[in-house]
Design brief:
Layout lengths: L2 H24 L2 H4 L6 H9 L8 E4 L5 E4 L8 E6 L7 E5 L3 E4 L7 E12 L2 E4 L6 E4 L9 E3 L6 E4 L7 E8 L2 E8 L3 E4 L7 E11 L7 E3 L6 E4 L6 H5 L3 E3 L2 E3 L9 E4 L14 H9 L5 E7 L10 H20 L3 E7 L10 H15 L5 E4 L10 H17 L7 E3 L2 H4 L15 E8 L5 H12 L4 E7 L11 H14 L3 E4 L29 H12 L1
Length: about 550
C-alpha cells in the first residue's frame, strides 16, 4: 500500500470519528439507543442539520401567538418548544415554518425555541435550538367602564380589573382619540375639565413584552362612556389647577387668574385660626368675593412650629383643617411657612424640608393648594446669599410629590427685594416671587420696582399687604392702598390682605371681640381697613 493511500484512509477514519462525536451530541436519547444503527451514515446526516434562525413572533389575540422562522435546508420538520419550569419541552411537531400557539393565558409572557430535525433511518436527528423568542399575549378587553364623582372640572373613571401591565386612558379631543394617562390601577380621575361640558372616554389594557423593552401588546378598547361635567360654582371648580405663565398666574385654561385673598394672623395665637372655619370661609368667598385664604403658620415666634413638638402638632392640625375646609368650598389655600424673627430661612431649613415634604405628599392631588416657603427673609440675607439655595432645597422636596402646585418664594428685606431675582430665577417653572407692602411705608419706589420686574417677565405675587404702616398698627392710608391695588389690577398680579383677624391693630379686618368662627356678612364687624378691602374685592 502506497504512503498516500495510507494517509487517505487515516484521514477518513479521523473524519468519521469527528462526525460521530457531533452526531452523539446532537441526536436525542431515543435515536442514539438503536443497536442496529449505521454510525457512518446517520452521523453524516446529523452533522448537516442546521440551526433554526430568524425566529419571530406575532401576537394574534389574548390567547394566540404566531411563530415564524426561516427554512432549514434538508429539514424533515421542526420541533416547537415553550419554556416551562426552566426547560423547553416540545409543544408541537410541524412540517412548515410557521406555527400558531393557541389556548395561552391572557396577558402572559411566554418564551419559545424551535429546532429542525431530519428523519434518518426512521429516527429524528435534531439540529441546535434557535435563539429564544420572548413575547406576550394581548390582555383582554376592558369592561364595565363607568363614571363617578363628577364635578365641574373632573370625573373619576373605573373599570373591571384584569391581568395586564397597565391601562391606557383615552379622551376624544377634536374628533380624535388621544391617550391622556397610563395607570396601573383600574381607576383614574381626569382633571382640569371645563365646567358644564361633554366628554367621551375609553380604556384599553396593555401588556409589555418584558421589563427591558417598550414593545407593548394591547387589548381591545372598552366601550365608550360619555359624561357632562357640572356647572362651575366655586373658584377652584371654575379655574382648576393654577400655574405660572410668563409674569402671571394662569388657570387650567391658560387664562390669567388674579388671586384675591385674606391671610390669617398667626394660627397658634389667641383664636386667630377660628377664621378657618367653614362658615367664615364661606362668608369670605361669597360676601367678600375672596378666592384664596392664606394660612400663616409662624415658625420661631413663641408657640411657633419650631419651638416644640406639641406646638408643631397643634399648628399642623390647624393647617390641615384650613386646607380641608377651603377645599370643600372650592377656595384656593396658601400654606405659609411664616418666618419672621428667624430672618434667615436656613435657620430652620431641615424642619421646613420635613414639613413641606409631608404637606406635598398629603396634598399632591389637591388642585387648590399652594405653598409659601419663606414669608419674609430679613436681617441682611439676600437672594444669592442664602435665600435661593434654601428655596431650591424646599422646592425640590415639594416636587418629589406635588409636581405642579404654585410655590411662592420669599425675597430679601421682608419680601421687597424682588429685583434681586431678575436673571436668577429658580429653574422650576411654577414658582412665583413674593412682594410684600404696607401702603403707608412702601410707596412709589416699591411700586416702580414691581413695574420694572413685571415688565422684565418676573412672576410676582403680593402674598401679603396692609393698608397701614409696616408695623401693622397705625398710619392707615387709603390713598396709597388704592394706588397699589389699581396698579396690581392693571398688571393682573394677585394680592392677599393682612389680616383676617380681630387683633387690636390697624391692619386687622375685624373689630376686637368678633367671633371669627362665624363672621357675619356685611360690614357690622369690620374695621376701617376691613371695610376698604371688602369693598375693593367685591368691585374688582
Amino acid at each position: 500500500m502506497s504512503l498516500s493511500l495510507k494517509l487517505r484512509k487515516a484521514a477518513a477514519v479521523f473524519l468519521t470519528s469527528a462526525a460521530l462525536l457531533t452526531a452523539v451530541a446532537a441526536v436525542p436519547q431515543e435515536s442514539a439507543a438503536g443497536s442496529l444503527w449505521s454510525g457512518t451514515t446517520i452521523t453524516a446526516e446529523a452533522a448537516s442539520v442546521g440551526k433554526v434562525s430568524g425566529l419571530t413572533s406575532k401576537t394574534l389575540s389574548n390567547s394566540e401567538i404566531k411563530l415564524s422562522w426561516k427554512k432549514v435546508s434538508g429539514a424533515s420538520g421542526y420541533s416547537v418548544c415553550m419554556r416551562k419550569n426552566g426547560k423547553y419541552p416540545q409543544i408541537a411537531d410541524v412540517k412548515g415554518t410557521t406555527y400558531t400557539v393557541k389556548n395561552l393565558p391572557n396577558a402572559t409572557r411566554e418564551n419559545f425555541k424551535v429546532r429542525a430535525y431530519k428523519l434518518v433511518k426512521g429516527k429524528k436527528v435534531y439540529g441546535a435550538y434557535s435563539d429564544n423568542r420572548n413575547t406576550a399575549t394581548n390582555p383582554q378587553q376592558v369592561t364595565q367602564l363607568k363614571t363617578s364623582s363628577v364635578t365641574s372640572s373632573s370625573v373619576k373613571l373605573t373599570w373591571k380589573k384584569i391581568g395586564c401591565t397597565n391601562y391606557r386612558v383615552y379622551q376624544l379631543k377634536s374628533g380624535t382619540w388621544k391617550e391622556i394617562a397610563t395607570v396601573t390601577t383600574n381607576a383614574h380621575t381626569v382633571k382640569n375639565l371645563g365646567a358644564n361640558s361633554s366628554y367621551q372616554f375609553k380604556v384599553r389594557a396593555c401588556k409589555r413584552d418584558d421589563k427591558k423593552t417598550n414593545y407593548n401588546h394591547y387589548g381591545k378598547y372598552s366601550s365608550v362612556v360619555k359624561v357632562t361635567t357640572k356647572k362651575a360654582t366655586t373658584p377652584v371648580a371654575s379655574h382648576g389647577q393654577l400655574s405660572v405663565k410668563g409674569a402671571n398666574i394662569v388657570d387650567k385654561n391658560g387664562k390669567v387668574f388674579k388671586i384675591k385673598g385674606m391671610s390669617t394672623h398667626g394660627i397658634m395665637w389667641e383664636d386667630y385660626s377660628d377664621i378657618l372655619s367653614k362658615d367664615s370661609l364661606k362668608v369670605l368667598r361669597d360676601d367678600w368675593k375672596c378666592n384664596t385664604i392664606r394660612i400663616a403658620m409662624y415658625t420661631q415666634e413663641w408657640g411657633g412650629y419650631t419651638t416644640g413638638s406639641s406646638y408643631a402638632s397643634q399648628a399642623k392640625q390647624k393647617v390641615k383643617t384650613g386646607v380641608e375646609n377651603a377645599k370643600s368650598l372650592g377656595m384656593y389655600v396658601i400654606i405659609d411657612w411664616h418666618i419672621l424673627s428667624d430672618g434667615d430661612p436656613r435657620t430652620h431649613q431641615d424642619e421646613a424640608v420635613k414639613f413641606f415634604t409631608e404637606m406635598s405628599k398629603t396634598y399632591k392631588d389637591y388642585d387648590n393648594v399652594m405653598y409659601e416657603i419663606c414669608n419674609e427673609p430679613n436681617g441682611g440675607i439676600t437672594w444669592t446669599g442664602g435665600i435661593k439655595s434654601y428655596c431650591q432645597k424646599v422646592v425640590s422636596a415639594i416636587r418629589k410629590y406635588d409636581k405642579d402646585a404654585v410655590i411662592i418664594c420669599g425675597t430679601g428685606t421682608w419680601s421687597q427685594d424682588i429685583n434681586q431675582v431678575l436673571g436668577n430665577k429658580l429653574s422650576d417653572k411654577n414658582c412665583v416671587y413674593a412682594l410684600h407692602f404696607y401702603a403707608n411705608t412702601h410707596t412709589d419706589w416699591l411700586r416702580n420696582r414691581l413695574k420694572d420686574c413685571y415688565n422684565k417677565g418676573l412672576p410676582v405675587l403680593v402674598s401679603e399687604f396692609g393698608t397701614c404702616d409696616a408695623s401693622g398698627n397705625g398710619g392707615y392710608n387709603s390713598t396709597q392702598t388704592k394706588k397699589w391695588l389699581e396698579l396690581l389690577d392693571s398688571l393682573n398680579v394677585g394680592y392677599i390682605n393682612w389680616s383676617a383677624s380681630d387683633k387690636g391693630e390697624t391692619a386687622s379686618a375685624f373689630v376686637s371681640g368678633t367671633n371669627l368662627k362665624a363672621i357675619p356678612s356685611g360690614t357690622s364687624k369690620l374695621t376701617t381697613s376691613g371695610k376698604l378691602i371688602r369693598d375693593w374685592y367685591r368691585n374688582h
